[in-house]
């Protein structure tokens, strides 16, 4: 009998692009890739309402295994773009485009990709461009130097520093407390 343990990802609920970036993290000094988990790709796609193998809008079936490679390429490209290297992200974006349409007098658009397996990756890459267009100053890396997670700061004052106060924030506060009491 095989028992599958569902991996709990840290920091879920971020915008699509950052949520893809955060499918790879460090846990107790060890790199963890959510897509290595059985059904990890399918779960991530379902969480975001993206095609999960049943087919895209054109009816073409795309298996999660076919989507994994474009998603990991997009994740790497997103991380590179967040670090200042935009070329890999542009390569992901080259796989598709948004086509403006008029439907019953209402503006609409559709995404057109060169290969249906690239649709989720393209959507995540386009989402990062959207975030940069809206509020680039709110896209942040966790202030914990050992943490690799990214978040979109939606706090009222825009001063969030940690991916989560329960994890990295508490560790930082505890370390400051220890330092004060060690030197005092």
UniProtKB/TrEMBL annotation:
Domain named Zinc finger CGNR is located at 138-181
Cite the InterPro entries for this sequence. ABATE, ABATE_dom_sf, Znf_CGNR
Protein name in the entry: CGNR zinc finger domain-containing protein
Which organism is this entry from? Streptomyces synnematoformans
């Amino acid at each position: 009998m095989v028992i599958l343990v569902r991996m709990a990802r840290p920091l879920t609920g971020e915008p699509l692009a950052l949520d893809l970036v955060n499918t790879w993290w460090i846990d107790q000094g060890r790199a963890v890739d959510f897509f290595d988990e059985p059904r990890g790709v399918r779960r991530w796609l379902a969480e975001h309402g993206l095609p999960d193998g049943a087919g895209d809008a054109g009816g073409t079936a795309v298996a999660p295994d076919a989507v994994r490679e474009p998603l990991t390429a997009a994740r790497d490209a997103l991380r590179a773009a967040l670090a200042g290297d935009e070329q890999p992200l542009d390569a992901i974006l080259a796989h598709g485009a948004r086509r403006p349409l008029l439907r019953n007098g209402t503006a609409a658009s559709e995404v057109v990709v060169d290969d249906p397996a690239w649709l989720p990756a393209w959507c995540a890459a386009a989402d990062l461009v959207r975030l940069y267009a809206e509020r680039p100053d709110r896209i942040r890396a966790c202030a914990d130097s050992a943490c690799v997670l990214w978040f979109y700061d939606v706090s009222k004052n825009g001063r969030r520093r940690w991916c989560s106060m329960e994890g990295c924030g508490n560790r930082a506060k505890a370390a400051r407390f220890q330092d004060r009491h060690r030197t005092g």
